[in-house]
């Protein structure tokens, strides 16, 4: 089973979004530059999501991310099941790819560099 691990919200103004979520829910963040802030877990040891600066908010809501140990096998399973996997990209914490399910929902799968 591959669980939901991370939810990424696209925001139009990162500073305002961080202020909103901090005030509304007492969220704290890890800053990764001017375009991204990770949402710290309640214990502060990990992250449960992120705020990604974007030009538009994608219809359908936030990007739900799944964590997998084997990205190639997961990509194959998605495609075999009828999904469309997109390009694998590297980021400072690891690698990920996004995919669309047969209904058109966009999700992502990642593997941390420290795993």
TrEMBL record:
User: Could you tell me which Pfam families the record lists for this protein?
Assistant: Glyoxalase (PF00903)
Q: Which residue numbers delimit the VOC domain? A: 3-112
Sorted alphabetically, which InterPro entries does this protein's record hold?
A: Anthracycline_SecMetBiosynth, Glyas_Bleomycin-R_OHBP_Dase, Glyas_Fos-R_dOase_dom, VOC_core
What is this protein identified as? VOC family protein
Q: Which organism does this sequence originate in? A: Nocardioides dubius
